Amino acid sequence: IININRRVTPMPLTDTTLRSVKPSDKPQKLFDGHGLFLLVSPNGSKAWRLKYYINGKEKLLSLGKYPLISLKEARERANSHRKSIENGIDPSFERKMNKQQQKITFQIMADEWLEMKRMTVSEARVSLLQGRLNRYILPAIGAMPINQITGADILAMCKKAEAKGTAFIPGEIRSNCSQIFRY
Asked: How many Å apart are CA 48 and CA 66, to the nearest integer?
């Protein structure tokens, strides 16, 4: 199909085309339209990519590998990302931010919170908080990403402390965790 500008518009891809494509000595791009294409590497791997523009800059976004991600699913993912792009959201930047948030563990935030506490409370209080963190809280949830900790995780930790026979500690644990989350 030829348009007014005499550029060839790609025909939408089909599953038959995708299954039959063979690798060559150079990477191949099989375009589906609207920036979606399948990149076929010389080693035979096939990966979906979305080409888009944000603030005049060309960017590429990986959508997954074929055949794990079907043609239909790749189109759905591309449409979803295009809607984000239309709303001014860069999907590549959003992905990076999500990965960074996954790296922020409860322990990292607890350490920062404790350092902040050092400026406002006595060293004896800091020592008490540090001991509670090390004994009850950090072994249970310290390594978890802070955005994935649920109320059930906190409750299980408090019940475990209560089972040890310390009546007031579960409330203190919950209170300290709450302060760290607010921080």
From this structure: 7
